[in-house]
Amino acid sequence: MRTVVCAEPGHMTLEQRDSPSCGAEEALLRIRRIGVCGTDIHAYGGNQPYFSYPRVLGHELAGEIVEVGSEGDPDLVGKRAYVIPYLHCGECRACRHGRTNCCQRMQVIGVHRDGGMCDTWRCPSII
């Protein structure tokens, strides 16, 4: 699949990568739309302290669900979806008190983990 990679600050590449497989608690999303925002521009410019390179950017994404894992809802296949890019641990004090936005181990798609600038993206099926 085609994947846009920020290899290092100031250098983007278009790579061919294997299509992702779908784990039990995951879904595959065919990317239909993706936004480019200040976070991506700062990563490209090397002004984003949370990034490591190379990184697939893109945390503002939407698409079509093409596959769900064995723990997912098969009725979701073919549905449109958008992604909330913040992944919380579910275990820290903030998460246990329902304040997942304050997670101590928060990870952001396209920042701490590879994002959606690709043809097909693997995501948690809790979308």
UniProtKB/TrEMBL annotation:
Residue stretches making up the Alcohol dehydrogenase-like N-terminal domain: 24-124
Record lineage: Bacteria, Pseudomonadati, Pseudomonadota, Gammaproteobacteria, Oceanospirillales
Protein origin, superkingdom: Bacteria
Pfam families, per database record: ADH_N
Protein name in the entry: Alcohol dehydrogenase-like N-terminal domain-containing protein
Organism: Vreelandella sulfidaeris
Sorted UniProt keywords: Oxidoreductase
GO MF, one annotated term: oxidoreductase activity
SUPFAM superfamilies: GroES-like
